[in-house]
Amino acid sequence: MNKRNFTIIIALLILSLVSILFVQFNWISDLNRLNEDRFKQDVQHVLYMINERLEEKEIINLTKDNLEATLKIRRSNDRGGIELIESTFNKETIDSSKFISSKNSSFFGTIYPSIFSLSNSLFKLFIFIPLIFYFGKRSYIAFDEGFYALQARWILEKGNWTIPLWWDEYVLDRTIGLQFLIAKSQDLFGRNIFSAYLPTTVASILMLFTTYKLHEELFNKKYAIISPLILATTYLWFDYSHLATQDIIYSCLVTIGVLALVKIKSKNNKFYILLFGIWIGLAFMMKTFLVFVPLLSLIPYIFFKKNFLFIKFFWLGLLIGFIPFLFWTFSINPYLDKNIIFYLVEKFNFLSSKNTFTNPFYYYFWNVPVTFLPWSFFAIIGTTYNISQSKENKYILAFFPLILLATVSIFSTKTPYYTLQI
User: Fold this and answer.
1) Is the per-residue pLDDT at 329 higher than 90?
2) What is the DSSP code (8-state) at residue 399?
3) For the ranges 51-65, 87-101, 105-119, 124-138, the one whose mean pLDDT is highest
């Protein structure tokens, strides 16, 4: 491993550390956005779980973060239930030393990260280094890798950052998203094969981290490392995380979109509403019309949280996400006889009709269990279990993958990497 590659690895690790620090120390902004209503809901939940041996009248003090509730409750005479007589909710003065020792504070949540939690996160990061980085000799694989690598090379040699080329001819059946990233990476870190894989490598790291945070949201924080470990040891993901293609980058953007949607709890979650709009445009720059597949799969969950669609931050995020595509469109159109969108539609129509990659409807019913081994058996059990659950999680853990599989099964072109985002 030469000095340049070693420097790149160190830079990536530092970037990952900065990301961890950012997430760990977001407690400052969270303390400024304390949601008393959410705490009151938690209190009401506690009331339903109070022991049956409740006395005639009892005062209960509950604390969470820097909120405190005093509740006066009593046994109801008519149905044996409990009723709330009086309640008070107060904010306490923030005392960092209290948070450090408090049993109610969370290391990975919104209060105060400890040195232990940071070292634990770093340890988890280093687990994936052997799975993500490869320092041996390699060559581009036909067809996609060689195709994108050559287009990136011609970008650098000809200085044409606008029009995708194949030798001296225009290639207008796709955007210039990945080719641009590979060329920019080689422009910054040297024209070598390692730099060509950097966009995919960075996307792989980010996708693993996003999967980790998704597990925290959908399940718990204690075993959150399990989900990225499962993802990293899945054959299909492991294979494409070492290819200089669009697929991992696109799947990473979809995963970010799913996490943003899960994190939207109310209209006040403006950052995640903005983020959910951004990923759509960026994913379109990578895979154009394929972005509608995960969007269709998320429709039940979007409908469940439909109020955020009327927030201006969603539409602002949508505009921001489409800026790269719009900029590229306005740059390339003067060289074409018609708008680039018509060429992209022609490619979509070609893939929708019978072609080399056309497979029968049942293709994914055997392909997904095989390419997701050994975890596909557990995925089938988990999906079946979550369908019957009334929890919000079923929209992501059951409906999303099932609708996605049904959608891509209808499409004429079927390839293994179309299902990477599930």
Assistant:
1) yes
2) I
3) 124-138
Q: How far apart are alpha carbons 410 and 161 in whole angstroms?
A: 35
Q: For residue 122, which amino acid is it?
A: L
Higher pLDDT, 90 or 152: 152
Q: How far apart are CA 361 and CA 382, in angstroms?
A: 24
pLDDT of residue 25 exceeding 80: no
Cα 415–Cα 178–Cα 262 angle in degrees, nearest 5: 70
- How far is C-alpha 387 from the geometric centre of its chain's CA atoms? 22
- Helices 177-189 and 198-218: angle between axes, nearest 10 degrees: 110
| CA–CA gap between residue 22 and residue 31 (Å, rounded) | 15
Give the β-pairing of 165-166 and 169-170. Answer: antiparallel
Where do runs of H (alpha helix) occur along 159-242? 177-189, 193-196, 198-218, 226-232, 235-240
**Cα–Cα dist 260/317, whole Å:** 12
What pLDDT is recorded for position 29?
Answer: 43
Q: Name residues whose C-beta falls within 8 Å of residue 318's C-beta, 6 or more positions apart in sequence.
A: 277, 278, 280, 281
Residue 254: alpha-carbon gap to chain centroid: 6
Indicate the pLDDT class of residue 388, thresholds 50, 70 and 90: confident
Q: Would you say residue 366 has pLDDT above 80?
A: yes
Distance (Å, whole) CA 147 – CA 369 = 29
Opening angle at CA 116, ends 114 and 119, nearest 5: 115
Give the CA angle between residues 251, 316, 392 to the nearest 5°: 55
Fill in the DSSP letter of residue 377. H
pTM, 2 dp: 0.72
Least confident residue range of 65-69, 99-103, 310-314: 99-103
Structure-block tokens of residue 41: 């809901």
| The token pair that represents 105 in the structure block | 């504070």
Q: Tell me the C-alpha to C-alpha distance, in Å, between residue 130 and each of 125, 134, 210, 312.
A: 11, 7, 19, 43
- β-pairing, 169-170 with 57-64? unpaired
pLDDT of residue 403 exceeding 90, the answer is: yes
Residues 6+ away with beta carbon under 8 Å from 166: 147, 150, 151
Residue 84 CA to residue 71 CA, distance in Å, equals: 7
